[in-house]
Design a protein that fits this description.
Shape: globular
Number of domains: 2
CATH superfamily of the largest domain: Type I PLP-dependent aspartate aminotransferase-like (Major domain)
Order of helices and strands: HHEHEHEEHEEEEEHHHEEEHH
Strand order of the largest sheet: 1-9-8-5-4-2-3
Structural class: alpha/beta
Mean pLDDT: 88
Helix content: 25-40%
Radius of gyration: 21 Å
Distance between the termini: 41 Å
CATH architecture of the largest domain: 3-Layer(aba) Sandwich
CATH class of the largest domain: Alpha Beta
Strand content: 5-15%
Length: 359
């Protein structure tokens, strides 16, 4: 009986406690009608994110795309600036760049999401490089630094790598500005929302004035109702209340999931149709969507649950329909093990299921 009680406690109680505590907080804030503008708990969320990610400044937004839009405006790039980015870049980010009239240059990635070097990329100067770190894996600076100069500004999309560290530094510390989506099933989720992280006071100040009317921190427009230099893009306060629990526990969540994923990759390494040596588990964290598996011959592998495809566009021709057919994609050889399925099942069950469906 004691063993059953301990099992129940370990599996359910802590999870329920965190979820019920979040639900109570949200209910309380709604009850006292403290759900708009900048209540203290939004500032608490931003301050904790700054501490967790060792960033001088954090600013919350209505979405990851909104955070990116304000971030790129804060750089004050000229129209027709040269921007280098990966073909694994979220489509809404590309749309923002096209809307602002920049010259876009896309680099390919290998099966492990690392940039493929081509000499042609070093024949011009880039004003900005946008590096997307996908599905919990870091894109190594050694692989993208060959394309850029010291003058090139860096923006990281860290939406899939919440809490990831690289060489004992938070990943966001390696960029001028990093942004994260807090949408859906991401490691830190507010249902919807986003944040930026930066150590540059000028960029932070500009983003407040661009997008955050009513913000009381060093805001030139704070005395004027509804005033900002651009679109109002601030986060709904309740998203901060919901995301706070995930933020507080991000290290434990990452470590627990990393341990399970390491076991899964170790087990799958003996499968003849898989090549997994390039996925470095010690350089992972955050995670999103699913765990990638690189097949030597993916065409002969049946797509059975929990194996899923990632339907990424092959090109970004927004005037017509985005195509899945025109260009080779790294996703031609990669399938994913659904992340929520991994989270909700024991390793023994995962092992037996994958042993059955992966030949």
């Amino acid at each position: 009986m004691i063993n059953l009680y301990n099992l129940f406690y370990k599996i359910f109680y802590k999870i329920l406690r965190l979820k019920l505590l979040t639900a109570f907080k949200v209910f309380y804030f709604v009850l006292i009608n403290n759900v708009s503008k900048y209540p203290a708990y939004v500032n608490d969320f931003e301050n904790l994110a700054s501490v967790k990610f060792n960033s001088k400044y954090c600013l919350s937004f209505s979405s990851g795309t909104a955070a990116f839009y304000s971030a790129i405006l804060s750089l004050k790039l000229q129209r027709n600036s040269n921007v280098l980015l990966s073909k694994i870049t979220f489509p809404s980010v590309v749309r923002v760049l096209k809307f602002l009239g920049y010259n876009l240059y896309f680099f390919d990635t290998n099966e492990y999401f690392q940039p493929i070097y081509k000499k042609e990329f070093t024949e011009r100067e880039y004003d900005l490089a946008i590096i997307t770190h996908p599905f919990g894996f870091v894109v190594s600076p050694n692989n993208y630094n060959r394309f850029i100069s010291e003058k090139t500004k860096l923006i990281f999309d860290c939406s899939h790598v919440h809490g990831l560290k690289y060489n004992n530094k938070n990943l966001n510390e390696l960029a001028d500005i990093s942004f994260m989506s807090l949408q859906g099933q991401k490691a830190i989720s507010g249902g919807e929302g986003g944040i930026i992280l930066t150590n540059d006071s000028t960029y932070h100040q500009r983003m407040i004035e661009l997008s955050h009317p009513g913000h009381n921190l060093n805001n030139f427009f704070k005395e004027f109702t509804g005033m900002s230099k651009n679109l109002k893009l601030r986060m709904h306060p309740l998203a901060a209340a919901i995301a706070l629990t995930d933020l507080k526990n991000i290290e434990k969540k990452n470590q627990k999931l990393r341990d399970k994923i390491e076991k899964i990759y170790s087990f799958l390494s003996n499968k003849n149709n898989l090549e997994l040596s390039g996925f470095k588990i010690n350089e992972t964290g955050g995670y999103h969507f699913g765990i990638p598996i690189y097949f030597k011959d993916v065409k002969n592998q049946k797509l059975n649950w929990p194996l899923v495809k990632y339907n990424w566009p092959r090109n970004y021709d927004f005037k017509n329909n985005p195509s899945h057919e025109k260009l080779y994609s790294v996703f031609d050889k990669i399938l994913f093990i659904d992340l929520n399925w991994i989270k909700s099942n024991s390793f023994l069950y995962i092992k037996s299921k994958l042993d059955f469906i992966i030949k």
